[in-house]
Amino acid sequence: QVQLQESGPGLVKSSQTLSLTCTVSGDSITTTNSYWSWIRQPPGKAPDWIGASHYAGNYYYNPSLQSRTSISRDTSKNQFSLQLSAVTPEDTAVYYCNSGREWGQGTQVTVSS
Hints:
By secondary structure, the chain is mostly beta strands. Helix content is about 0%, strand content about 50%. It has strands at about 5, 10-15, 20-25, 35-40, 50-55, 60, 70-75, 80-85, 95-100, 105-110.
């Protein structure tokens, strides 16, 4: 059974960088044809795809967030990470990692002004 777990600070100050890590168990982030995504859902809004780590080491980003987003991975730890820079209160959301089928439980990140 594949499980994903997000971790990182729940409170970030405006203009700082939000950093989250997703730890995967039950599968490898290098499994052929796998994509590992970050998705967020602001309060009262629809989910928003942020970007993804491809099994071969490529990264893909939502064009609307690309200038502020960096996704990386640590294959030795079976983790992939998100950094979102220059955050504002509009980046307040529940952040999820996703395997394409399974979801992490989500982590609330609040950006203070």
